[in-house]
Amino acid sequence: MATEIPEGASLLIEQIGTLAVVPPGPIVGAQMRTVPVINDASLLVRDGRIAWFGPTSDAPLDEGAYVLSADGGCVIPGLIDPHTHIPFAGDRSGEFTRRLGGETYLSIMEGGGGINSTSRAVRSASFDELVSENLPRLERMLENGVTRVECKSGYGLRPEDELKQLEVIRALDQQQPIDLEATYLGAHAIPGEFADRVDDYLAEIADPALLTEISGRGLARFCDVFCDRGAFNVDQARLVLTRAAEAGLRPKIHADELAQIGATRLAGEVNAISADHLEQIDDGGITALREAGTVAVVLPGTSFFLGIEHCNARRLIEADLPVALATDYNPGSCMIESLPWIMNIACCQLRMVPSEVLAACTANAAAALDVHQRVGAIKVGFDADLVLLDVPSLESWFYTPGLPRVHAVIKSGQIVYRRPEHAR
Ligand SMILES: [Zn+2]
């Protein structure tokens, strides 16, 4: 990836109209609502990390620094998408039309479509085909200001193809600037050949030897389960997540999306790092997440795309849960890969204010991936993952959805993207 910064030189970002000084996550309540800003700011990067930031009038002198102008726009931490289903293959646009005609996500899944349809495509795709089909998706995400993405397996649905997906994630991580965090999701759906033998399927995909291999080879840091009506029940999910934790994989859970079956209580019980979806969460689930310190990952793109009820994110924020937002980018229930678009849906449909939305996509998204100690905030010593926007304020960014506002993206101190009209 080309960059103009000479080896060893610092990077000074000048003429920042608004610097959003997001504190390290997880952050809750009023802290989400009132992210501090510095107007007329500068920010200095050294050795890939934030070395100084503050009002331009106080900027330290660094004569050898490479200077990048923010042209009076906003600078924010790099956006983090903590829930996607990259890598996938195949095309389910036909199902999209069927759903618009009245069929439900669940009825399509029960008829052999849905996740099972993508599973057939992923199983028949070669390793190289999976890499080349998914690389452009990440390149477009970078252009939207995203510097870190969680990616899940879960379409292989048998050990060799689940491992193939995790190895594709590793290859994708090495081939483009966005850092990827991998999650093993063998318990995403019950494949057709195991329709009446769920325990046999669990014996395969939650085999301690397989989980130990995934963890030991560093192929994933997290293990996720789709715990819901039509997927895995609470006892089955508990088995998978408990064994995963014993193998060193941190639990995550798809919870309370379609029905309330106690999945968020399980998230608390197994100390999940995040519980994701939460459209049907109840008071007991909220208490369980708060007591376990679990991050609530809300996926408004999915409810928008499926036309179902949104998660009540305001209720979660008012209960002092650290709320994060993600795309849930996947071929069935949300083909929206743009995190800025999700951020706008969160404003307009979930009634989150711009500051809360930014905190949810930076500090709290970092906490959902256990990387909040070094990314997701503007703090001296943190990785210099930054986005330059050509709008004067966050408010004006979300007020004008759908427009390309990302002017440049910095990853670990390197300029990894510049929108063409800003390129030299
Ligand atoms: Zn998902």
Name its key features.
single chain; 17 helices; 424 residues; globular; eight-stranded parallel β-sheet; binds zinc ion; alpha/beta; TIM Barrel; Urease, subunit C, domain 1; 2 domains; eight-stranded mixed β-sheet
List the helices and strands and how they pair.
Elements: E1 11-20, H1 29-33, E2 37-46, E3 49-55, E4 66-69, E5 74-77, E6 79-81, H2 93-100, H3 105-110, H4 115-124, H5 127-143, E7 146-152, H6 159-175, E8 179-187, H7 198-205, H8 208-216, E9 222-227, H9 234-246, E10 250-255, H10 263-269, E11 274-277, H11 283-292, E12 295-298, H12 300-306, H13 313-318, E13 323-325, H14 339-348, H15 354-361, H16 363-368, E14 386-389, H17 394-399, E15 406-411, E16 414-418
Parallel strand pairs: 1-4, 1-5, 6-7, 7-8, 8-9, 9-10, 10-11, 11-12, 12-13
Antiparallel strand pairs: 1-2, 2-3, 5-14, 14-15, 15-16
Helix pairs in contact: 5-6, 10-11, 14-15
The structure holds zinc ion (ZN).
Zinc ion is lined by residues 83, 85, 254, 328, 330.
User: Which ions, cofactors or small ligands are bound in this entry?
Assistant: zinc ion
Q: List the quaternary state of the chains.
A: single chain
Query: On the 0-100 scale, what is the average pLDDT?
Result: 95
Tally of domains: 2
User: What portion of the residues fall into strands of 2 or more residues?
Assistant: 15-25%
Can you give the helix content as a percent range? 25-40%
Q: What's the count of strands?
A: 16
- Rg over CA atoms, rounded to whole Å, is 21 Å
CATH architecture of the largest domain: Alpha-Beta Barrel
- The fourth-level CATH homologous superfamily of the largest domain is Metal-dependent hydrolases
Global structural class: alpha/beta
- Quick one: biggest sheet? 8 strands, mixed
Query: Can you tell me the CATH class of the largest domain?
Result: Alpha Beta
The low-confidence runs, each spanning 5 or more residues with pLDDT under 50, are: none
Number of discrete helical segments: 17
The geometry reads as globular
CATH topology of the largest domain: TIM Barrel
Through-space gap between termini: 16 Å
